[in-house]
Design a protein that fits this description.
By secondary structure, the chain is mainly beta. It contains no helices and five strands. It starts with a strand and ends in a 29-residue tail after the last strand. The relative contact order is 0.24. Belongs to the yippee family.
Length: about 90
């Protein structure tokens, strides 16, 4: 999963943010909103609105994009080489 820390996806023209909902994830209960591609309508990730556990508050306001659902500017997929370290995320349990 690709975590976007320094990009405001809500200001982007190619995605939109859906309704907030409560979702139980591996790290606890979170209020999240799905992120949609405005071109095709597919869910491409989610945004953490609220973390209900103190240890998860660092996630608030951050977004997660699923790499296999996102294309690069040339239309190619973003893939991670097997040598790169990729940490797990709450999506693993969704």
């Amino acid at each position: 999963m690709l975590t976007i820390d320094h990009l405001s996806l809500t200001d982007s023209v190619n995605v939109s943010v859906g309704e907030k909902e409560e979702r139980l994830m591996m790290t606890g209960m979170h209020t999240v909103a799905d992120i949609f591609c405005v071109g095709c309508g597919s869910i491409v990730g989610w945004k953490y609105e609220t973390a209900h556990e103190k240890s998860q508050k660092y996630k608030e306001g951050k977004s997660v994009l699923e790499r296999f659902k996102v294309s690069g500017p040339d239309g190619s997929n973003y893939w991670v080489s097997h040598e790169a370290h990729v940490g797990g995320s709450d999506a693993d349990d969704a």
